[in-house]
Design brief:
It is built from 15 helices and 19 strands. The mean pLDDT is 97. Bound molecules: pyridoxal-5'-phosphate (PLP).
Length: 459
């Protein structure tokens, strides 16, 4: 068979060299970004103008005075006012390999050289297949998940999952889910999300059956949640389409729960033929294994799993029994060629070695960061950096009095000093980080130093 033109382009030594040279040239420039830097006085006016314009065109100001310049290096990002920030939020957890990672960039450029910008479910290119192939291969190692379907984001991946479970359990409508859950921004995912601020003025569909999350201070927590689940199921027998959970409560406060908490719940669901759906939009690739269901050793219970964020596109994974009838899930877009190409590269980087496992870099970062925060809490910031923890690269602590106003002020102060963080949860509100896997030990020290200064100076 004569070689396809597409293959000739991908394998052309001239094209490969151009891509390498291009990425190296960009990396050379990006490598000048080595640490936190204040705004350049000459660029302040320009920086402010673009921030104001962004607020103007979207009808709402930015959360932070942040508009990126398109450059960065690892955990550091350059903004339009010439400042450089240490970015521990990464677009709410997208840039797992940091800013301007040369391998990710090269993959993105390779994707951009294909004939189309967006790929679709009707006419995919090979990256579509390669992405799903890799994802399903990794997912099926320790679960019964067998197929995947692409979507543009976590919300759409979740919509597909809910439709699948409802089709399989038709005419069941109700959903077992947790208090303080977050599931996305569509009409149904806003319903599943347990935050009134995210659905002001929307009608209630009353299809959610809430369960209390794990309370590490209550020895009866596991039993209490199971009892409530059983009550819901008894009251709505035959009308429950799924049990959905985030392996760690994300937006709800970065509250982890042990395997022993989930086990009786998923066991009970199995006995009642209720499909179990893990929403791993936030946890995918971050917990020390590719999936948090692996970290929690729950793979055999999972019927559906949704991912997005670090994958650069969304996807719904499902078992043989959950494979939906044709027509139920589709959509025009299934991710851009550059995003799919980058997503494949990120998964390859993670599974090639070094990052995963209890002794891998992800858990190493977790231990070092948590330990440094705990030290602050015991020394210079006594009692003001409480409850540091989370799962893998998702870290949080409760600062000061844990009140929203205090945490908002602290976030502003951290930003001004060069550290980008975010909040989660309510009562207490916690300060959270979505740490990139490429953070170095010295960057952790710098981040913790900034936190220490901001807290000591008072907010
Ligand atoms: C657990 C969880 N599910 C769903 C979503 C929604 O994903 P997206 O914002 O890509 O639509 C998020 C986003 O933060 C999430 O954390």
């Amino acid at each position: 068979m004569s070689q396809l033109i597409g293959q000739q382009i991908a394998e052309s030594p001239v094209v490969q060299k151009l891509v390498t040279d291009l990425v190296n040239e960009v990396a050379k420039l990006n490598n000048q970004i080595t640490g936190v830097r204040e705004a350049n006085p000459e660029m302040k006016t320009h920086g402010q103008a673009i921030i104001d314009q962004t607020g103007k065109v979207r009808g709402r100001p930015l959360n932070y005075p942040y508009v990126g310049s398109g450059s960065g290096s690892g955990v550091y990002v350059e903004l339009e006012d010439g400042s450089v920030k240490l970015d521990l939020i990464n677009g709410i957890g997208i840039h797992l390999m940091g800013h301007a990672n040369p391998r990710v960039m090269a993959a993105t450029v390779r994707g951009a050289l294909s004939d189309i910008v967006n790929q679709g479910n009707l006419q995919p290119n090979k990256e579509y297949t390669m992405f799903l192939d890799k994802l399903v291969a990794v997912a099926s190692r320790k679960s019964r998940l067998k197929y995947g379907w692409l979507a543009t984001c976590g919300t759409m991946a979740n919509e597909s999952a809910l439709k699948i479970t409802r089709q399989k359990r038709t005419p069941a409508r109700m959903v077992l889910c947790f208090k303080n859950a977050f599931a996305g921004r569509s009409t149904m995912m806003a319903e599943l999300t347990d935050n009134p601020a995210y659905k002001v003025g929307l009608p209630e569909y009353n299809e959610m059956l809430r369960l209390p999350w794990y309370d590490k201070n209550d020895p009866r927590s596991i039993e209490k949640t199971l009892t409530i689940m059983k009550e819901h199921v008894a009251k709505h027998e035959g009308n429950i389409s799924t049990f959905v959970f985030e392996p760690m409560l994300g937006e709800g406060g970065y509250m982890p729960a042990p395997r022993e908490f989930f086990l009786p719940l998923v066991d009970f669901c199995k006995s009642k033929n209720i499909p179990v759906w893990a929403d791993e939009v936030q946890t995918f690739t971050r917990t020390g294994e590719m999936f948090a269901f692996e970290t929690l050793d729950l793979g055999q219970y999972i019927d559906l799993c949704t991912i997005a964020k670090t994958a650069q596109v969304g996807a719904t994974l499902y078992t043989e029994e959950m494979n939906p009838a044709p027509g139920l899930i589709a959509g025009t877009f299934s991710g851009t060629s550059p995003a799919l190409s980058a997503g494949i590269e990120i998964m390859n980087m993670l599974t090639e070695g070094g990052y995963l496992g209890s002794q891998g870099r992800i858990m190493d970062i977790h231990r070092k960061f948590v330990s440094a925060l705990n030290t602050l809490n015991e020394t210079t910031c006594k009692g003001k950096v409480q409850d540091a923890g989370g799962m893998g690269l998702m870290l949080a602590f409760t600062p000061l009095d844990g009140k929203k106003e205090t945490v908002d002020k602290l976030l502003k102060s951290l930003f001004a000093k060069g550290l980008i963080a975010f909040s989660c949860g309510k009562d207490p509100v916690r300060l959270r980080f979505l740490v990139p896997a490429v953070i170095r030990d010295e960057d952790i020290k710098i981040a913790v130093k900034i936190i220490e200064q901001a807290i000591i100076e008072g907010v």
